[in-house]
C-alpha cells in the first residue's frame, strides 16, 4: 500500500485520514500548524505529528493537502520541494488542478463532496469523490486510491468542479444556515428544536423523488402576501435575516411564475 | 365518530383528509372553488364534492378549513353561518385563533407542521400537530381528534405558533429553495442531481445530533474570501441569487464571530 502524508488536520483531513487508514494505507505523518490538531489526528491514525513544514518526510508516496483554500497556494511550493516524483493531491472543491503546476510533476485533485466534522464518523463508501489528474496514468492512480474508500469516483474538470462546489454550498452550507435561523427562532420561544425534525426530514426526503421546484410549498410559492409581510415583521430585530427572507421569498415567487 | 367536512382540497387538505378517513372519520363533503380539486379529493375520501359554498351541509360535526390564508377570512363568515354549535377548525400556521370570533361559538386551530404534496403520502403519526381552542372543552375535543392521527399533539398559543410557522418556513421552504438553486447549477453543467443526495442527507442528519451553528461548514464560516468572491462571480448571470449568496455568507460569518 502507498504511504500517505496528510497536510492538514481539519474536519476533512480527519475523516479522509480515518477512511484511508481503515482500508490499510499507512499514514506516516500529519502536518498542521496547530500542535494540538496535528497530535489529535496523528493519535487517531497511529501516525507522527509535525508542525514544522521542514520536518516533512520526503519518502512518502502521496501527499494529501486538506487545508483552508487560502493557505493551499502558500504551502504547495514548500511541501513539493525536493520530492520530484511523489504524487500530490488537494481536496478543495474550488481550487484548480493547476495550482500544482511548476511545483510538481505528478499531481491531482481528490474532492470528496460531503460536510465533515471531526467528531462525526461518516460512511465514505457513499460519498462521491471527484478526481482530476495531471496525466492519464496519474488519474488512474488517483482513481485506485479513491475507489478503495468510495463506490462513487467521478472524473470532473476544474471548471465543472467549481460549479459542483457552488451547488454544494447551496445544498449544504446554506441549508444548514436556514436550520440555524429556525433554531434561533424556536429557542427564543422556548420551543424545543426536535419538534421541527419531522419537517426537516420530509423536506429532504422529498427531493430524493421530486424535482425541488415541484416540491416547493409555503407562503412564498403561494404568494400569500399577508403572511410574508407578517413574517417579515416578526424578524424586524434581525435586519439581515429579514432582508434574506424578503429576497428568497421574492425569488421563489419569480421562479414559480416562469 | 364525528363527521367532518373539508373546506379546501389542496396539499394539506388532501393528506389530512386521508389521515382522518383512515382512522374512521366519515368525511361527508369536500369543498373547493375548483371542481377538479374538489372531485379528486372527494374520490379519494369516498365523499361528495361541492364547489358552491351554499351547498354545504349543516349537519356535520366538524368543519376543517385548509385554504390559502388570504381566502380563509372571506370564507369563515359564509361557512359558519347557521351552524351555531358545530366545531370549526383551521390549519394555518400564521392565522390567529380569533379569526373565528363573532362567527362561531366553538372553534380552534389544528396546525400539522409538515410540507405536504397531494401525491406524496406522509406518516401522520410522526407529524406534530399544534392545537388551540376557544374554550377548555373545545381544546379537549380537538386534542382527541388530533391524537387519533398523530403521536405528537401540542397546545400552542397563536402568538407562539406564528414563530413556529416562521421557523418552518426557514427549515423547509427556504431549505427547498436552496436545493432548487443547487439543482439548477448542476443541471446547467449536466451533472445529475443525485450526486448531491449524500451531502443533502448528511447535512440533515447532522442537525439531529448537533446544534446547527456547530454543524456549519463551508467557505463562509471559514471566511475563505477568495472562494466566496469566485463563487459570487459564477453567479453573475443570476443577480438575485448572487445577492442572496452574498448576504447569507456574510451572516454566517457574523454569527461565527459572536
Characterise this structure.
- Two copies of one chain form a homodimer.
- Chain A is an alpha/beta fold and about 260 residues long.
- Chain A has two domains: about 150 residues, NAD(P)-binding Rossmann-like Domain (Rossmann fold); about 100 residues, ProC-like, C-terminal domain (N-(1-d-carboxylethyl)-l-norvaline Dehydrogenase, domain 2), CATH 1.10.1040.
- Chain A has ten helices and eight strands.
- The first copy, chain A, has an eight-stranded mixed sheet, with helices on both faces.
- The termini of chain A are far apart.
- The interface between A and B is large, with 93 and 93 residues.
Largest interface: A-B, 93 and 93 residues
Summarize model confidence as the mean pLDDT of chain A: 95
Alpha-carbon distance between the termini of chain A?
A: 54 Å
Strand order of the largest sheet of chain A: 3-2-1-4-5-6-7-8
CATH superfamily of the largest domain in chain A: NAD(P)-binding Rossmann-like Domain
CATH class call of the largest domain in chain A: Alpha Beta
CATH fold field value of the largest domain in chain A: Rossmann fold
Main beta sheet strand tally, sense and closure of chain A: 8 strands, mixed
Content of β-strand of chain A: 5-15%
Helical content class of chain A: 40-55%
N-to-C series of helices and strands of chain A: EHEHEEHEEEHEHHHHHH
Shape of chain A: elongated
Amino acid at each position: 500500500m502507498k504511504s500517505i502524508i496528510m497536510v492538514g488536520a481539519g474536519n476533512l483531513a480527519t475523516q479522509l485520514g480515518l477512511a484511508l487508514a481503515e482500508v490499510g494505507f499507512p499514514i506516516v505523518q500529519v502536518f498542521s500548524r496547530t500542535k494540538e490538531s496535528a497530535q489529535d489526528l496523528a493519535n487517531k491514525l497511529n501516525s507522527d505529528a509535525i508542525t514544522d513544514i521542514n520536518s516533512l518526510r520526503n519518502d512518502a508516496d502521496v501527499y494529501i493537502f486538506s487545508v483552508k483554500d487560502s493557505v493551499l497556494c502558500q504551502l504547495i511550493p514548500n511541501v513539493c520541494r525536493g520530492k520530484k516524483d511523489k504524487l500530490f493531491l488537494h481536496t478543495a472543491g474550488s481550487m484548480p488542478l493547476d495550482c500544482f503546476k511548476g511545483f510538481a510533476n505528478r499531481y491531482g485533485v481528490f474532492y470528496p463532496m460531503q460536510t465533515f466534522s471531526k467528531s462525526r464518523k461518516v460512511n465514505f463508501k457513499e460519498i462521491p469523490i471527484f478526481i482530476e489528474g495531471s496525466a492519464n496514468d496519474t488519474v488512474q492512480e488517483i482513481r485506485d486510491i479513491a475507489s478503495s474508500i468510495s463506490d462513487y469516483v467521478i472524473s470532473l474538470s476544474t471548471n465543472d468542479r467549481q460549479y459542483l462546489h457552488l451547488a454544494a454550498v447551496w445544498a449544504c452550507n446554506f441549508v444548514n444556515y436556514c436550520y440555524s435561523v429556525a433554531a434561533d427562532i424556536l429557542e427564543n420561544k422556548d420551543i424545543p428544536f426536535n419538534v421541527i425534525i419531522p419537517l426537516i426530514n420530509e423536506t429532504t426526503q422529498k427531493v430524493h423523488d421530486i424535482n425541488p421546484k415541484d416540491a416547493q410549498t409555503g407562503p412564498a410559492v403561494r404568494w400569500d402576501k399577508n403572511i410574508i409581510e407578517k413574517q417579515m415583521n416578526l424578524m424586524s430585530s434581525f435586519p439581515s435575516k429579514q432582508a434574506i427572507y424578503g429576497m428568497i421569498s421574492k425569488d421563489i415567487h419569480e421562479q414559480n411564475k416562469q
